[in-house]
Every structure is written in structure tokens, then in C-alpha cells.
Amino acid sequence: MPSSHSLQTRENTSLPDRIALSAATVQGGHLRTEDFADWLAERGRANTFRVARIPFVELDGWSFQESTGNLVHRSGRFFTVEGLHVTEEGEPHGDGPYADWYQPIIKQPEVGVLGILVKEFDGVLHFLMQAKMEPGNPNLLQLSPTVQATRSNYTKAHRGADVKYIEYFVGPDRGRIVADVLQSEHGSWFYHKSNRNMVVEAVGDVPLLDDFCWLTLGQIAELLHLDNVVNMDARTVLSCLPFGDAWEGALLSDTELFSWITGERTRHSVRAERVPLDNLPGWKRRESTIEHEAGRYFNVVAVSVQAGNREVTGWTQPLFEPVGPGVTAFLTREFGGVPHVLVHARVEAGFLDTVELGPTVQYTPDNYTHLPASGRPLFLDTVLRAGPDRVRYEAVHSEEGGRFLNAESRYLLVEAGEADAPQDPPPGYAWVTPGQLTSLARHGHYLNVQARTLLACLNATAVRTR
Fold this sequence. Notes:
Organism: Streptomyces brasiliensis
Binding site for dTDP-4-dehydro-6-deoxy-alpha-D-glucose 2: 188, 283, 346, 362-364, 367-368
Protein name: NDP-hexose 2,3-dehydratase
GO molecular function: lyase activity
Number of helices: 10
Domain dTDP-4-dehydro-6-deoxy-alpha-D-glucopyranose 2,3-dehydratase: 34-241, 255-458
């Protein structure tokens, strides 16, 4: 830390320009973009990866607690699967057909570190990325941050190997901070879960270890246009980068936007009470799954994992598996020549602060097929019916592969008109600029994890159009 007697500038005014230069550089000095696929495939061949579904009785170290039926680890660490009873009170809700429900939830109180190390080579910032296996990823191996570790991981509660590069983020001699913010995880599946999202610029030489590579931001932007390559943890960290804002105007001033968010948080009252997983209304525990009686939402399952390059090379664990692919999208419009996206003030049971800003659409369509048209979520059909001429970005990305199995969503940026998405939107929705999203991402618990993914995709799309 600098001396308490020395004054510093409050903002690093050169940083947005350095980030912009890295974003504009589509060929790195270490690994060519066209060689990345071969590099990732080689890392897959260099290690043994295997994931198999198992019945709950074959979980090693995990068991259903006798008094509650909660699924717990014998160490008392890692996470638990519990029940949650959610009641939304106050003004009418707009986030789904039910104001009162029960569900399983993951409780993981510890704060993990998601960190990307950056270093300048030949005048251009490069990002140290990792080929990391996660058991829930549909293709197992994806590009992750330099460090992606829970506190149990990096304090070695699992008695495994050291987490590589962790000293650059939590040690006394860590590098220069570029971004450092607590961000929420999936509020529909985690209870009050946050991770520390960090970008740190290295001071001095950095050894390049197996399974890691240096890429420019422009190269990562190209990879964000591919399906299931850049993992969720990398996407959320990238969204916290302090990009410069090319536009000054907005439909809502920043003060008006904060006031609107505060009003939405005041308008909603949510009571989320942890309850025993045993006999959870609407849910049935079977030999290999905990599932909803209507076959909707998600299942809790168990897997056995082998991963040759992880701190622990073999383990078993529970995972949440959604019943179908999701659709996650921002509707976009220009007002006065300034791009805007339509955000939704979303209520999710696991949020710390009731409401966070999410995409216009964030749903699993299969969960709504039984409802009449009047019960379907706003703007979902607008996105589903959008023709290719209106789609400005599209890729399939998986969610957090350490806790969720085959959780994929189709992420889109869809251009809309007044008839589809009026300038004066319905309650619970607001038009904001990408620059305003970037400002909000510098603070915790304003943008949900899906909105942060789409912000990273917005920035990647902007790179292509510069």
C-alpha cells in the first residue's frame, strides 16, 4: 500500500486507453488467435478428465443430515444444499407467475477469489488465462481466470496442491489493482453468495505454467463469440474492467438511474427463509435426483469427477442441473445516437439486496410452456421471434461449472424498435447505456451475473465494430 502521507490521483486516467489498446489488438505476442483452439485441445489431451453421474449413496464425504435432510460435507466446509421458502410481498411482482415458493438452494458463505493477472508485453496489456476443467461444463475444459478458487481451495481445506498464482491476489506483495469488487453469484441457485472479482497488474516477471496462456483483450473478445469457450468466472471478471465511455448522454442521468434502482429495491419485499431440505413442498428426493414434482426448474444430482490438473485430482459432489437451456438477452436501441440496453430490476431469492439489474430476458423457456400467453414473461417472445437481421450478438455460454451441470444459456443482443420495446418501458425496466453498466459493475450487487456476462459480450461486440 502507498504511504498514508502521500497523495495520489483518484483515477488512473491512462488505464481506459491501455485497456482499449489491448481490446484493439487481436493478435497477441504469445499465442496467435488462430492457434488457440489447438492449444486448448492439447491441454485437454495432456490431462485426464472424467465426469460420471452417481446415486447419492455413492457420494464420498457427503451425506443427508439426519435432522434436516440437508446435503452436507463431513468437513463442514465447501457448501451445503438446503431448502428455501421464498415469499415476495408488497406491490405486485413481475418476475414470474408465483409469489410464494419452495426450492433447494446452495449455501456457500465463504467468499472466493476470481482473479485475472495482467501484464504489459511490447506496450500491450495481456491477460493470463487458464484452461480449467469444471465438472459441470458440457465440454469440461474452458478458459477461466488466472485464479478461480474458493477460500476452502486456497486455504487447502481439501488438502490438495497450492492454487497457482494465488499470491498475486491475496499475498502481501500482490501487484497493482486494476479492479477489485464483490459481485453476486446466481441469485436463483445460491443463497447470499459473493465472489471477489479482481484484475491485478503484475509487477516484475511472471512464470508461465502449464495450462495457462497470455492473451490480449482483443483475442478474448474474439473467443467470446464462440460457444462454450470463455467460462462464466472469466466473463464476470472481464465485465469489471474500467472501459472508457465514448458517449456522454443517456436517457437517465446517473442520479436518476440510482434513484430508480433504489425505488425498485423499495418496491419489492422478499422474505427468504432457509428451511430443511427434507420434505420440501413440491420437491421429491429419489435415488439419484432431487426434482420438482412438475419436472420443471432444475434437479439436484451427484457426480464423480477425475481431473488430472486440479488441486485435488478426484472427488464427488452434488450439482444443480437445469431442466433445459436458458435464453438471456438485452434488447438494444439507440436514442439520440447513443446505444442503450433495456435492463430488468430482477428479484432473485438468493440476492443480498433483493433486486439487482439483470438482462431484459433471463428465463428457461421450458418452465413457461404450460402457461397461457398472458402468463409468459415480458419480452421473451420478442427475443425468441427475432430474425437474424436483428441479432447483433449470439453465443451459447455455460454457467458456473463448479456447481451447475450442463447449465447453458443462449446469450443475445437483439435490436428492437418502439413497437417491441418502447422508450417509456413497463415498470421494472429501464434503458441504460453500456457506459452506465460499466460504472455500476465497479460496485458490488448492482448487476447480476447474467447482466455482467452480457456486458462482457457488449464490449466484445464493440471491439469488432471499432
